[in-house]
């Protein structure tokens, strides 16, 4: 009786309620695990895999460790949380509705996974791939609903995202950015002799053949400043880069070693390099772009592109869109590495020298890369020996500049290969190279104005070239096998202190020779073994070139100084006036509105025109693009690209445009040269 008095009566109904409550939460936890597994496969794994193999993405945006870790956390957790919230909306509707919604979410994720798998394993693209992926997802969702085994597999796979994060942080090339393993780096030893200032400019994606005229010399008419540089320096005309990829090519240049492993271009992976070799004696002023080889203890990066978590999330979102799409992306990921202008970065432009009125000095801050502006501002004499280093993504794509310095807009996904498109890509490349020549000219003027030109060792080169040969466009092994003269051979100019007369040296130069040459010119002893050979030593005897499409896998390419490429033919209609001709046919110009209010003083022009014509217009039909009555370009009609475009034309002559409203016309050119004006929409 006393026991009955002291012990409260047990509520037997509460026990099943608690059991049911626990069972419900176990079921929800199981569903969450399934969603985590699928989002890990659909989002986390592919994104971290691509980003982990692309440390240059983080280096270009100067991402901090905190930024990268926050991005990884978002990639890992945000998709699961989003789908969990969608499923939670069905909780008040009851168990059956909740199960049906969960199955639908599983089916949606399975469809996304099937699209990615199908793109890799089958030739299907577009709607057919979506149909097959939908059918596969429906079957998978039905199996998930009916049998326990698929659910159990997914719950075990919920650990996958943690594995993917671990691989990214500890095993991927990008891990060096997140978890750098010290600076290290051996300092060079100063020897007897002068230690002159060093001015080094590394351009990007510049084939030597793009600079050559028909006589095999630098085309002084198109590129007067490169020609002037060659006229006062030693031109190593048989110089080649060692790789078509900057993350391998640039470390080889700055370490004197061939690329042997796929490591991030980061000081923790390449502790011994130009910056550490000179850093003990020299002041280092470095402007790197997609590398971080100069350790923070030796130099600070003066100018950075847009950075922070926001840009990382935005660019990762675009990458995910391309990964998840049922079609192949034509966008080069490196096209996102756009150099910000001085105005965008909030910098003052370098002091202009308006000796060329055609060059837009009045809007230089709008059109000049901020990295170049900062580099130029630092070219001043110093009591201490100084290394002025600039890696500039010019004339590398995205191509956005005319030779005058005016910029223009273009779709991100314009093809760079195929009939018509590869010719347009080369024309845009050459136009941006003309602008790059202006930047070289401004550098030479600044060096002379400050008195550094005679005193300094000046090095101007490029890390690699690029092929514009039809069917073999790019920088990979296919391009090397068919157009090595465009990919491997790069301009290399070395002006010694006090040198005034130019000379040509056709020795077998490879870019691993750059650091040994700089070390000899600056009287510094490099305390590590180098594969390269100084230009002050005897030339290497072998004629073959070592080239690395992949680290540790050298291939031998043969050939000497490349000949100039055939000039781009200019249609005889270009530059002529288009009179009053009969109308016939139609065309669509996507950016026609850009001609309604042109502001040349603002630094921008609608210099690229693109659109389509009716399907009954045969491929190969010539179209004349006319601005204010003058033919600016003649281009062929080509098969539609992924965006439906059948033509695009570059209008590289600023004189075609006027301030205010401009008239744009499109003419169909007959086989006999007759013109018919097309009605534009």
UniProtKB/TrEMBL annotation:
<feature type="transmembrane region" description="Helical">
    <location>
        <begin position="99"/>
        <end position="118"/>
    </location>
</feature>
<feature type="compositionally biased region" description="Basic and acidic residues">
    <location>
        <begin position="532"/>
        <end position="549"/>
    </location>
</feature>
<feature type="transmembrane region" description="Helical">
    <location>
        <begin position="68"/>
        <end position="92"/>
    </location>
</feature>
<dbReference type="InterPro" id="IPR000917">
    <property type="entry name" value="Sulfatase_N"/>
</dbReference>
<keyword id="KW-1133">Transmembrane helix</keyword>
<feature type="transmembrane region" description="Helical">
    <location>
        <begin position="153"/>
        <end position="171"/>
    </location>
</feature>
<feature type="compositionally biased region" description="Basic and acidic residues">
    <location>
        <begin position="331"/>
        <end position="342"/>
    </location>
</feature>
<keyword id="KW-0812">Transmembrane</keyword>
<dbReference type="InterPro" id="IPR052701">
    <property type="entry name" value="GAG_Ulvan_Degrading_Sulfatases"/>
</dbReference>
<protein>
    <submittedName>
        <fullName>Arylsulfatase A</fullName>
    </submittedName>
</protein>
<feature type="domain" description="Sulfatase N-terminal">
    <location>
        <begin position="223"/>
        <end position="520"/>
    </location>
</feature>
<feature type="region of interest" description="Disordered">
    <location>
        <begin position="331"/>
        <end position="358"/>
    </location>
</feature>
<dbReference type="InterPro" id="IPR017850">
    <property type="entry name" value="Alkaline_phosphatase_core_sf"/>
</dbReference>
<keyword id="KW-0472">Membrane</keyword>
<dbReference type="Pfam" id="PF00884">
    <property type="entry name" value="Sulfatase"/>
</dbReference>
<feature type="transmembrane region" description="Helical">
    <location>
        <begin position="124"/>
        <end position="141"/>
    </location>
</feature>
<feature type="region of interest" description="Disordered">
    <location>
        <begin position="532"/>
        <end position="553"/>
    </location>
</feature>
